[in-house]
Amino acid sequence: MKREILTLPDAGAMVRELCVLVRDKASSAIEASGQFSMALSGGRTPRALYEALAKYYRDGIDWNKMHLFFGDERFVPKDHEQSNFRMADESLFSIVPVPEKNVYPIPTEEATPKLAADRYETTMRQYFTDVDFPVFDLLLLGLGADGHVASLFPGDAALVEKRRWAVPATAPASYAVRERITLTFPVINGSDTVAMIVAGEEKRGILERLLRGDSGIPADRVEPAGRFLIFTDIV
Ligand code: 6PG
User: Fold this and answer.
1) Which of 5, 29, 117, 118 could cross-link 137 (Cys pair, CB 3.0–4.6 Å)?
2) What pTM does this model have?
């Protein structure tokens, strides 16, 4: 695993670099296989990236060949203010010409997070066929203040899942939405490229813990077979 830290002078420069990464990865994947798969991250940080992709790359990317999944979701309706799907839909899907059939939301309309996770795994297996684990061309991650990635939180059973592609998870009591669905580490680490986005001074401490190899945080388990790029504006 090759971990590469890309430190940019500010959030705007970081978003511009991330847009170039998405464009270039998409272009090479589409040239090679006719399609591109990306797992989106949620929370606040990636919104600026999705907005920039919508604003500047509406024409520079072949959206018709893009297949957009989610790394995790809060167990809320798709129109809920805490929904990662709603955030990505508002900032990206509703603006670029990506076909609706190429966007794969986590089905939070299911009765339980477990049923949603099971159905999402079935959906992923219809795209990534005949493999033990999927290989996303690009998988985006944020970094939580407690070192979580996706919805893989410290102390949660989801951290040690070795077989399932998607599982239910639980966020700490301090989170507005505790019931979650998350991709698992075998899926994250099977990606061709993982891009982690860490923005804002408030993330300095947790980024330093990650960079010094603190095995006590979930993010330390991110070890993709391919490239692991960490984009940050924390100088
Ligand atoms: C989520 C995200 C989560 C996020 C981190 C960082 O559903 O909340 O997928 O893993 O990336 O919590 O969130 P911020 O970008 O809001 O700091």
Assistant:
1) 29
2) 0.98
The DSSP annotation for 180-205 comes to: EEEE-HHHHTT-SEEEEEE-SGGGHH
How many whole angstroms from 143 Cα to the centroid of ligand 1?
A: 6
Determine the length of the chain.
235
Within 8 A by CB and 6+ apart from 195, the residues are 18, 21, 138, 139, 140, 141, 229, 231
Look over the chain and give the mean of its residue pLDDT values, rounded to a whole number.
97
**174: DSSP letter:** T
Q: Give the separation between CA 66 and CA 206, rounded to whole angstroms.
A: 32
Model confidence pLDDT, tens digit, residues 40-82: 999 999 999 999 999 999 999 999 999 999 999 999 999 999 9
Report CA Rg, the chain: 16
* CA of residue 185 relative to chain centroid, distance: 12
Phi, psi of 130 (to 5 degrees): 55, 40
Domains of the chain: 3-232 (3.40.50.1360)
Chain centroid to Cα 3, Å, comes to 17
What is the distance between the alpha carbons of residues 53 and 26, in angstroms, rounded to a whole number? 12
Q: Which of 18, 76, 83, 143 to probe ligand 1 with, by most ligand atoms within 8 A of CB?
A: 143
Q: Give the atom of ligand 1 at the shortest distance from the alpha carbon of 142.
A: 11
Q: How does pLDDT run across 77-131, given as a tens digit for each residue? A: 999 999 999 999 999 999 999 999 999 999 999 999 999 999 999 999 999 999 9
pLDDT value of position 235: 87
